């Protein structure tokens, strides 16, 4: 119900807890930020966060200039441990906090960072069972308990469309890893069903595959795909138009996974995008077929889509039998052609 998310950050700068609504504001999944350094998420110029983690706003001195990744890692060793009787009482106004900080944001309505207002207080974090260097148990230490809300309130349009937006997480080759609750409602699949089917391209309409692949390549080069409009196959064997933007998420300077933010479109909107796209794409397509490769002869194991225009066969082929067939015919099952061959012809 909050216009924001809950954040608990330890004195060392580790995210102890985040409510799952962090995904609606920053695009990061709750599981991906927990127990990570908060300094990986905030703007390097925003040193206000480090000061606010210290009870007297006076943290241990750090080298001048922007902290490097190594400097951030050494924070835990420079954190000071306090005995509770050295600190003001927990209800003291000294421990209240209210400040603004820029956070990394994966959503397409931001410039890469989102300014958040953090309001809360330092409280003791119990049950950590941490020990000092000599092996003695450390008393509970202060942690920042805060509510993070966007500095700029969202527009009515953003609030309306936010309720329809869903996000998916993928490996670098686009194999699905996770899908949020709204995505499961829109597409109908469970996460297990999404993961079992190999690359994510077999959920993409054949006429959209090369277009999606082109934007996938662009994202691997630049970090972002740009807006991509295409059709996804739902569990009910229907095509759902979505407008998507994919971004790479880096860890230690290397790309680790892809987050895709997707907004369902009505068929008329999707059709309009398709007409615009058809003016400059280098391959021909009709309503349901794509010539994925130029060839003057039928491809092995793949029926000529233009041969029969009658009612599509309703016979269902399982993923595994199609995969075996495509391997036998020398087609890589993770290629675009392999993805098309795994699809049931009836969906077209």
From TrEMBL:
It is found in: Nucleus. Pfam families: PAS, PAS_3. GO terms for molecular function: nuclear receptor activity; transcription cis-regulatory region binding. Keywords: Activator, DNA-binding, Nucleus, Receptor, Transcription, Transcription regulation. Residues 56-90, 308-335 are annotated as: Disordered. GO terms for cellular component: aryl hydrocarbon receptor complex; nucleus. Residues 1-48 form the PAS domain. GO terms for biological process: xenobiotic metabolic process. This is Aryl hydrocarbon receptor.
């Amino acid at each position: 119900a909050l216009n924001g998310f809950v954040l608990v950050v330890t004195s060392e700068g580790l995210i102890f807890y985040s409510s799952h609504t962090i995904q609606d504001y920053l695009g990061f999944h709750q599981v991906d930020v927990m127990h990570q350094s908060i300094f990986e998420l905030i703007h390097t110029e925003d040193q206000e966060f480090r000061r606010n983690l210290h009870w007297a706003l006076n943290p241990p001195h750090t080298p001048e200039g922007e902290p490097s990744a190594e400097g951030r890692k050494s924070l835990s060793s420079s954190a000071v441990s306090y005995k509770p009787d050295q600190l003001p009482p927990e209800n003291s106004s000294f421990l209240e906090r209210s400040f603004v900080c820029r956070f990394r944001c994966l959503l397409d309505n931001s410039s890469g960072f989102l300014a958040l207002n953090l309001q809360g207080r330092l409280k003791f974090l119990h049950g950590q069972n941490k020990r000092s260097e000599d092996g003695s148990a450390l008393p509970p230490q202060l942690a920042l308990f805060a509510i993070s809300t966007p500095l700029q309130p969202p527009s009515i349009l953003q609030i309306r469309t936010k309720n329809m937006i869903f996000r998916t997480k993928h490996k670098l080759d686009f194999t699905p890893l996770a899908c949020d609750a709204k995505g499961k409602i829109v597409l109908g699949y469970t996460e297990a069903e999404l993961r079992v089917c190999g690359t994510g391209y077999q959920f993409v309409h054949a006429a959209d595959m090369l277009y999606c692949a082109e934007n996938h390549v662009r994202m691997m080069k630049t970090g972002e795909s740009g807006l991509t409009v295409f059709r996804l196959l739902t569990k009910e064997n229907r095509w759902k138009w979505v407008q998507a933007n994919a971004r790479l998420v880096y860890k230690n300077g290397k790309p680790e996974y892809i987050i895709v933010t997707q907004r369902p479109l009505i068929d008329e909107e999707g059709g309009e995008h398709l007409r615009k796209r058809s003016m400059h794409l280098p391959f021909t397509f009709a309503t349901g077929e794509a010539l994925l490769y130029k060839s003057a002869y039928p491809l092995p194991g793949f029926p000529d889509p233009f041969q029969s225009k009658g009612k599509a066969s309703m016979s269902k082929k399982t993923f595994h039998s199609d995969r075996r067939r495509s391997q036998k015919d020398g087609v890589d099952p993770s290629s675009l052609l392999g993805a098309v061959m795994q699809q049931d012809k009836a969906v077209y």
